[in-house]
Amino acid sequence: MTDTTPVLELKDIKVYHRARSGSLFRPNIVKAIDGVDFTISRGETVGVVGESGSGKSTLATVLVGLQEPTAGEVLFRGERVNTRASSSKKLFGRDVGVVFQDPSTALNPRMTIHDILTDPLQVHGIGNQSSREAKVKDLLQLVGLPQSAAEVTPNQVSGGQRQRVAIARALTLDPSIIVADEPTSALDVSVRAQVLNLLSDLKKELDLGMVFISHDIQTVRYVSDRICVIYLGRIVEQGSAHEVFENPTNDYTKSLLGAAPSLLHI
Ligand SMILES: Nc1ncnc2c1ncn2[C@@H]1O[C@H](COP(=O)(O)OP(=O)(O)OP(=O)(O)O)[C@@H](O)[C@H]1O
C-alpha cells in the first residue's frame, strides 16, 4: 500500500520577530508567519504565492529546518521533530533539498562544479571516491549539463546553467522534498521556462515533493498541483491549481489574479 503520510507537515507554525522600531520595554513584533498549517508529500508540487513581505521565505526556512519557529509543530514522516536538535538538522539536510533565488550567491564561486556537487556527500560521509565521481556524472546528466561543466567554476557558466548546478546540488543527497524559493526570478526571461520545465521533469522522474515559492501567480500555476496563497503570514486560500484559478474565493487571491499579466510571464 502506498504511504500517504506527508513527508513534512507544519501545524500552526508561528515565526515572530522583534522589530527594530520597538523599544526594550515595548517591543514591536513582526508576525512573519502567523499560524500556518502546511503539508508536502512525495510526487506533488505545492505552489506558495504571495506578494513581497507576505512570509514566503520565512515559510521556506522553516521547511528546510533553518528557522526555529516561535510556536507550532514540525512533523517529519509523522514524527514531531525538534528543529533545534542536531539530529533533526542532519535529517533535514539529507531529505530536504533547497534551491534559492540567486545561484550566483548560493554557490561558492571559488569551487569547481565537481567540488560543489561532491561536498554534501563528503560532509555526510557518503560513498567513496569512485561512487562520488559516478554521482557527479549522473547529476550533470540529470540537469542537462555537459560533463565538461564539472571542471569549471559557477562563474564560468551562464545564469541558467548556474541554476541547473544549484538544482543538481540540491539533489546530491537524494532528497524526497525540494524547496525552491523564487528559483527563476533572478534568471533571464529567455531561460526561465527551461528551468521550470527541468524542475517539473525532475519532480516526475524522481517522484519528488516540490514546494515552489514565487510572487508570480502565473509561474506558480504553471508548475503546481496545489496552490497556497499567503498574505501577512497566513494562508488565506488553498486548493488545486484549477480551483484557485477558476474559482478564487478570497479577495487577496482575486487581486493577485487581477494583477497578473494574462500571458504566461516566464
Ligand atoms: N529577521 C527578521 N527580523 C524582523 N523582521 C523580519 C525578519 N525576517 C523577516 N521579517 C519580516 O517578516 C515578514 C515576512 O518576510 P519574508 O521574507 O518571509 O517575506 P517574503 O514573502 O519572502 O518577501 P520577499 O519576497 O520580499 O522576500 C516581512 O515583513 C519581513 O520584513
Automatic annotation (TrEMBL):
Signal peptide: none annotated. Keywords: ATP-binding, Nucleotide-binding, Transport. One of its GO terms (biological process) is transmembrane transport. SMART domains: AAA (SM00382). GO terms for molecular function: ATP binding; ATP hydrolysis activity. The keyword Nucleotide-binding applies. InterPro entries: AAA+_ATPase (IPR003593), ABC_transp_ATP-bind (IPR050319), ABC_transporter-like_ATP-bd (IPR003439), ABC_transporter-like_CS (IPR017871), P-loop_NTPase (IPR027417). PROSITE patterns: ABC_TRANSPORTER_1, ABC_TRANSPORTER_2. The keyword Mitochondrion does not apply. Residues 8-257 form the ABC transporter domain. PANTHER family: D,D-DIPEPTIDE TRANSPORT ATP-BINDING PROTEIN DDPF-RELATED, TRANSPORT ATP-BINDING PROTEIN. Belongs to the ABC transporter superfamily. This is ABC transporter ATP-binding protein. It comes from Arthrobacter echini.
